[in-house]
Design a protein that fits this description.
By secondary structure, the chain is of the alpha/beta class. It has a single domain, classed as Rossmann fold. It has a five-stranded parallel sheet, with helices on both faces. The longest helix is centred in the middle third of the chain and has 24 residues.
Length: about 150
């Protein structure tokens, strides 16, 4: 039987990811496991039109700092419920691979990840972050489908 000691929860701050985090926190509580929140900032983010190419480094630093702050806030929320919580902000141009890499590096026993509700051939052909994590992670992966009842 699976008795995880460390559960990794990738977070992109979307509603489906936050719902998956609730499930990961519940599992961590039930198993007495630690919870690791992971957010990946794209290495080459699409610059808004208001950002000059010369300010790209500054923009990238701001994205990373904002993500770190949001992750610290989320971690603090779950730590209040007596969970052992850590967070990590990675940077990569391949979000799925970075999640897998961090999972292996930190020896996660379980990854709990959300889909974003996209269905059909597009995902099958192009793939998605969740699909890549399922395919490449060495640990078990629990994939939670986004709610389709307007609560996505």
């Amino acid at each position: 039987m699976l008795k995880p000691k460390l559960i990794l929860a990738p977070i992109d701050f979307s509603d489906p990811a936050l719902d998956a985090l609730e499930t990961a926190a519940d599992l961590a509580s039930r198993f007495g496991a630690a919870l690791l929140l992971v957010h990946v900032v794209p290495a080459l983010p699409k610059l808004p039109t208001s950002v000059s190419i010369f300010k790209e480094g500054e923009y990238d630093s701001r994205l990373h700092a904002e993500a770190a702050k949001q992750m610290a806030d989320l971690s603090a929320t779950y730590a209040q419920s007596s969970l052992s919580v850590a967070s990590e902000v990675g940077t990569s141009d391949d979000v799925g691979m970075e999640i897998v890499r961090l999972g292996e590096e930190r020896r996660a026993d379980l990854i709990v990840i959300a889909t974003h509700g996209a269905t059909g051939w597009k995902d099958l052909v192009l793939g998605s972050v969740a699909e890549k994590v399922v395919r490449l992670a060495r640990s078990p992966v629990l994939v939670l489908r986004a709610q389709s009842n307007g609560h996505s």
